[in-house]
Amino acid sequence: MTIRPNRVKQKLKAGETVLSSSLRLPEPGLCEVLGYAGWDFVLLDGEHGALDATTLDRLVQGCFAGGTTPIVRVLRPNDSEAVMHALDLGAQGVLIPHCRSVEDVRRLIAAAMYPPLGNRGFGPGRSTLWGRISGSDYVKAANDEVLLLALIEDPEGVENVEGIAAGGLDGLWVGTGDLALGYGVGAERDHPLVMQAADRILAACQRNNIACGYPARSAEEGRRMAQQGYRLIGFGGAEQYVMSESRRFLNEVAPGGNH
């Protein structure tokens, strides 16, 4: 018996592009639905969402029920306890927000990896199938299956992106929204300053042979970004899909109505 393989990490190693959705509300059934829909992974948003230890535990189960990979976006870039806890609950990877320096990368690796690569404390549960896989066997294999990602969403992170990209992560993600705020252009995610930063992040990832992610706002943009070389393409979240499809139906069935 072996530990659960990380199919997203396998795809990235094979040079493939992976697609993700996200979830903020603590509803495991939505994770299951997203998995059945075909998303490669679901980003469980612990930074902006209503997640605690109990709900995260259930969301991970929902992802596995739907056949998708659970990745947790932790609250802070240097929250080592949150990284370890997410992995112990069965998440197969973590994304840290606001990665600004090589030191942030080092702290992530230290928290997520067992020795000799890091100093993750021992206490896995679901990841060992609750004891069916021995602790020693799990430790031997775990470092190869954990996916480590970081959001570059601050001008400081862009300036340090070469060192960050060379730090040993599996990929970096362009945070267009916060980059726009950081560059003082409001919510203009397509502003030239943001696009220049995105190009710089993508180039650094490609030079270091790691994946680069982008938050697409449409299928057309997702295809375009994949053609440019981004291999982690995100698109909204379950809550957004409920809202957009609801509004589409209501506007088409009762245009001009009180909806």
Structural notes for this entry:
With 259 residues, this protein is α/β, with parallel strands linked by helices. Helices cover 47% and strands 16% of the residues. The chain contains 12 helices and 8 strands. The chain has helices at 7-13, 28-37, 53-66, 80-88, 102-112, 135-145, 155-159, 161-165, 176-182, 192-207, 219-228, 238-253; strands at 18-23, 41-45, 69-73, 93-96, 147-152, 171-174, 211-216, 232-237.
Q: Work out the number of β strands.
A: 8
**CATH C-level category:** Alpha Beta
Proportion of beta-strand residues:
15-25%
Query: Going by CATH, what is the homologous superfamily?
Result: Phosphoenolpyruvate-binding domains
Mean pLDDT: 95
Provide the succession of SSEs: HEHEHEHEHHEHHEHHEHEH
Beginning-to-end CA distance, first to last residue: 54 Å
Q: What count of domains describes the coordinates?
A: 1
Q: Treating each run of at least 4 consecutive H or I residues as one helix, how many helices? A: 12
Which percent bin holds the helix content?
40-55%
Structural class assignment: alpha/beta
